[in-house]
Amino acid sequence: MAGQSDPHISLFSAEEVEFMAEDELIEIVPNMRMDPLNFICGDFGPFLPQIATQVPMWLAVALKKRGKCAIRPPLWMSVENLTKVLEGERDSQGAFQALPFHYVEISRLLFDHARDDIPDMYMVRSLIEDIRDVRVHKVETSLEKFSGTSAVKIPNLSAMEVNIIRPFVGRALQAFYKHDNPEKIPDVDRASSGQTRVANNEPRRPLRR
Known about the structure:
By secondary structure, the protein is mainly α. Helix content is 48%, strand content 10%. The strands form two sheets. A three-stranded antiparallel sheet has the order 4-1-5. The longest helix has 24 residues, at 121-144. The two termini are 16 Å apart. Residues 14-71 form the DNA replication complex GINS protein PSF2 N-terminal domain.
């Protein structure tokens, strides 16, 4: 699988996580008439001027680049809501506020391709960066308190945050199990190295939609 060539870094690259986020639905307001579009992932449209409709993020970006629509930012991206989320993150050191699983990737795509559609864009971007920084710090603090267990539960993590901690937690659990039962646990690093050599010998294929 792409992104697994080195078991000591994140499972997926930032670009691969963003690619997965592009399937999230978002609302657009077309400025043209167009028949429904039929894809493997579903049918979208018909498109009528000034009539809002939902499409995948990748399609919204493609139409936006061609000047065919405006993109409506999701409600959670309002300054008022993000301010409340940031306050909640700072007030609660042991819990994470509920945000979309791909909030980092969705906001980055909108900042890159639809900044003119985002009210108070610079304030929104600053708030999201602050929220992300606070949450990453809380993830790091949670990992410092980590102890061996058969399961790790941290509610409301985003894709980016899960991607950061997954390799660490996996290796930590293996270390705990190996310490308790050394004869039953295989050498994970050796096995990972073997998989890395196999993965490196296989040609990388470009991501396709």
